[in-house]
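Posting this for the archive.
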Amino acid sequence: MKTLLAIALIVLIGIITRADGLSVSIENDILAGSDNNYSHATEIKWNMGHGTNDVFLTSIGVRQFFYTPDNIALGNTIQPYERDYCGVLEGFYQMWKREMVLGKPEYVMYELDFGVLGPLALGSQTQSYAHRIIPGNIQPQGWGNQMPNEPILNGYMERHHNFTVAGDRNGWCAVADGVYGGSLGTTWINSFAGAEVKLGWNIPDFVADNTFTMKSVNGDMEVNHSFYSYVKFETRAYAQALNATLGDSLFNDHPYGRQLTPAFAENTMGIVLGYNKLSFCYLITKRSDEFYGQAAPMDYGTLIVNFGTTF
């Protein structure tokens, strides 16, 4: 109930501020054909376009996600080679800018996250309710040993640097970008670098999976009003120093904390279809081990729907 009230509050704020579009994202390991190490995430946010290169898009939103071990029927038994139960509930603010770096456009996203990790995130209630209403699911038994409550305050940066475009952006083309950034805060401290390749029709200048796409027109950023479709392949290499969802906490001494690997890899592939401020995205993400002795790497699927309040 509290999660629904939080989502309703975000929707109300979006209506009051006359936001330009709404994005809804759902992640679940079932969408990738597995059911281990990661359970579910829901994100809802309002996007506000500003039409300038300086800050052309801002968003406010709320997200909830939680992790569970593979076997949720073992009660409060700690499973040392699996993820423990952990819930996160946070609000966030995002800001996108367009910059020129080494003569190429670079799209930069800054994000500030604030919320709670632990029982107050309502992961237990959310999963238990979902398993009651969806046939064939068993009730999770191990939320009694989830990570204790602690505050969340994180900063996140993500930069997309255009390397090259082969073909015509107004027709068939291939786009290659470099991606890099990282997180700094109470929940994660990490950095990443990688590359993204998109192949398809009428690929917009600015593409973010969980917001509407935009084109650069006469120096300003405008919503892309054409049909577009593409497949994407992205790979990232992470270096990590802190992950509170694995018990590596700044606030609590977790006896079941995992020993983090210094680095891990993440690969994503998927398809995007869109027209104007309406788009659909389906992605599959796979990660290598994030802690020593991990029984199985994490993988999950993502469904994203973006639509605007005006067309």
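The first helix runs from residue 2 to 16. The chain has one domain: 2-308.
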